[in-house]
Amino acid sequence: MFSALRLSRPSLLRSILTSAAMQESRKAARPKRFTDNRAKKRTMATQGAAEQSPGAASSFSTPQPIASTAPPLTIPIPDDTPKFSDLAKDNLIHPTLLQTIAQDMKFEHMTPVQAATIHHLLRDRQDMLAQAKTGTGKTMAFLLPSIQTLITRGRKPGADISLLVISPTRELAMQIANEARVLLQRLPQYKVCVAIGGTNKDSEERRIRSGCDLLIGTPGRLLDHFEGGSDVRDKLRNVDTLVLDEADRLLDMGFLPALKSIIRCLPDKEKSKRQGMLFSATIADHVEKVAHLALAKDYKFISTIPKGEVNTHERVPQHLVVVPTFSDMATGLVGVLRQELAHVGRDGFKAIVFAPTAAQVDFYAGIIEQCSDLPKPTALHSRLSQSKRTNTSNAFREAKNGILVATDVIARGMDFPSVTNVIQAGMPADKESYIHRLGRTARAGAEGRGTFIITSHETFFSKFTLKDIKFEETTADLSAQRDILSIAERMDPEMHRKTYQAWLGFYKSYMKQLRWDSETLVHEANTLALKGLGSPEVPTMPKSIIGKMGLKGVKGLNIGPDPPKQGRGGGGRGGDQSGGWGGASTGNGGGPRNKRPRKQSDAW
Question: What digits encode the pLDDT tens for the residues 128-152?
Answer without folding.
Answer: 999 887 777 899 999 999 999 999 9
